[in-house]
Amino acid sequence: MDIVIRAAVAFIILWLATRAAGRSTLGELSSFELVLFVVLGDLVQQGITMEDRSLVGSLLAAFTMIVLAAILNYANMRWPKLGKLMQGRPIVLVRDGVLDRKALHAERIGLDELSMLARQAGIENYSSIRLAILEASGKISFFTQEAQSRS
């Protein structure tokens, strides 16, 4: 039972850590960040199982994490308000060509990163952006003035 409790605590701490990491960070991990998360998982596993190398201990810890993830997904689906609290809401970064610098700062998104993503979406300058929204997934959706005039 000790492994289940420690797995549940680790699950909550890892969930909080990924939320604190920010959406854009989770949206596209660099190679180093990916390796860091994998190593973090290995370190957490050792703490959960207290160096228990048995198959039963490892499976019990993994099963606990899977069950908690399934419960969290079900709760997000069943209660939409909880889902918004757990996953976050979309955030407007640019509206009618005007940057929301507070939102960019709060989400730790630099102007260089936003410019790069806009260029990848075929947008040359901010003035042509009607809306840029940071989705809960970490991706940024761009809506341009031209797209609105075509509708």
Short description:
The chain is α+β, with helices and mostly antiparallel strands.
Please provide a written account of the structure.
It contains eight helices and four strands. It is an alpha+beta fold and 151 residues long. The protein has a four-stranded antiparallel β-sheet. A hairpin with a 2-residue loop joins strand 1 and strand 2 (98-99). This is DUF421 domain-containing protein. It comes from Glutamicibacter mishrai. The chain crosses the membrane at residues 55-75.
Regions with little confidence, pLDDT below 50 for 5+ residues: none
Order of helices and strands: HHHHHEEHHEEH
Rg to the nearest angstrom?
A: 20 Å
How many DSSP-defined strands? 4
Biggest β-sheet, characterized?
Answer: 4 strands, antiparallel
- Principal-axes geometry comes out as elongated
Rounded to the nearest angstrom, the distance between the terminal CA atoms is 59 Å
Secondary structure tally, helices: 8
How large is the share of residues in beta strands? 5-15%
Mean pLDDT: 79
How many domain modules? 2
Derived structural class: alpha+beta
Strand order of the largest sheet: 2-1-3-4
The proportion of residues forming helix, as a percent range, comes to 55-70%
Transmembrane segments: 55-75
Protein name: DUF421 domain-containing protein
Domain YetF C-terminal: 78-147
Keywords: Cell membrane, Membrane, Transmembrane, Transmembrane helix
